């Protein structure tokens, strides 16, 4: 494994960070990869600990065709964001939470994980090395994508003998092409994202390949994405391909509980706390399709999607709409509270932001 003629730079050495402005139209940026300046890599032998790591120019990596990640899907990813504030600071949102989730996922996937401290320091170093790619305040964020992959060669089924922890970044805007407008979801009744005892509760790469077929079919029919049901009863909500789901009825906000088949989202957890702080009753429990169809408002949460209001749900050919094509009041309020905090516009009384 190596990088293409990359001139490696130690994380603790002075980097030559380009300062020329980048040629991007910040008003039209969506959620697609923009090549940036540097990425971070560190390696670890099975049973060993991760090397200090280095920042190298962003680019292709070389990997043996028999690497564990390519053959047997031994891999995890994370997602978090850095925001530029009006007063010139850079804020990360709860990076230790991503580090902790990676540790939990690594345990499930038989991989060693970097320490929480190494993860957070590496994220900080990667963001600083790519500072010029952080969008101006209010124009988006720098999406940070940590990867943990079995990079060593295996042929028989076994944990890879070597692992690579890599972080790259890309400036992003809105995830859905609808922007901040409500999205239209269809409930998938044949295929499932996860099963009890499987890996649905960790951020392993295969969970995301598994949703592409239903997602593609839904998009071809004009829907924004797919909502999955539990694989046993086919009656309880799980999650959307790339985000968690919340259902609002009166002053109560319900969301599926974490029981191994849905991703423990960091935005999900944060929204639960923000909503409780604002006086809503929040319930983490099994939520039925009937409750969803009978809701006042529905919204999705995730690092990439932030808080995305749902305008309609289609289930077995029947379409239910929410609100009068506007964004629901609860979704709007939670979105503003969370993003104001993430962007440094309000006092962070939760202590969730980390200043670089
Ligand atoms: C994120 O929200 O950060 C994710 O990892 C979801 C991904 C499918 C974009």
Automatic annotation (TrEMBL):
The lineage of its organism: Eukaryota, Viridiplantae, Streptophyta, Embryophyta, Tracheophyta. It comes from the Eukaryota. This is Uncharacterized protein.
């Amino acid at each position: 494994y190596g990088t293409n003629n990359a001139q490696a730079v130690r994380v603790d050495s002075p980097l030559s960070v380009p300062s020329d402005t980048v040629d991007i139209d910040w008003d039209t940026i969506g959620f697609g990869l923009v090549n940036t300046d540097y990425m971070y890599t560190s390696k670890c032998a099975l049973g060993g600990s991760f090397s200090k790591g280095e920042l190298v120019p962003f680019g292709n990596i070389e990997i043996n065709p028999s690497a564990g990640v390519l053959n047997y899907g031994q891999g995890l990813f994370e997602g978090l964001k850095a925001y530029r504030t009006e007063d010139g600071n850079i804020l990360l949102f709860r990076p230790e939470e991503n580090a902790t989730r990676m540790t939990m996922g690594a345990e499930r996937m038989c991989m060693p994980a970097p320490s929480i401290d190494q993860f957070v320091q590496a994220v900080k170093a990667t963001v600083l090395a790519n500072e010029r790619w952080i969008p101006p305040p209010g124009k988006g964020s720098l999406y940070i994508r940590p990867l943990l992959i079995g990079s060593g060669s295996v042929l028989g089924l076994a944990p890879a003998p070597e692992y690579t922890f890599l972080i790259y970044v890309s400036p992003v805007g809105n995830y859905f092409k609808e922007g901040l407008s409500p999205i239209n979801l269809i409930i998938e009744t044949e295929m499932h994202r996860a099963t009890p005892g499987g890996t649905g509760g960790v951020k392993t790469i295969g969970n995301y390949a598994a949703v592409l077929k239903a997602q593609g079919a839904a998009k071809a029919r004009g829907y924004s994405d797919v909502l999955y049901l539990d694989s046993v009863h086919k009656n309880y909500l799980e999650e959307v391909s790339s985000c968690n789901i919340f259902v609002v009825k009166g002053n109560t906000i319900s969301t599926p509980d974490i029981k191994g088949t849905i991703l423990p989202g960091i935005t999900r957890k944060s929204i639960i706390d923000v909503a409780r702080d604002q006086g809503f009753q929040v319930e983490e429990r099994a939520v039925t399709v009937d409750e969803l169809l009978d809701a006042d408002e529905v919204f999705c949460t995730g690092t990439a999607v932030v808080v995305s209001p749902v305008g309609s749900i289609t289930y077995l050919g029947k379409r239910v709409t929410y609100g009068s094509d506007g964004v629901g009041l609860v979704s709007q309020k939670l979105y503003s509270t969370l993003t104001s905090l993430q962007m440094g516009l309000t006092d962070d009384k939760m202590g969730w932001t980390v200043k670089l």
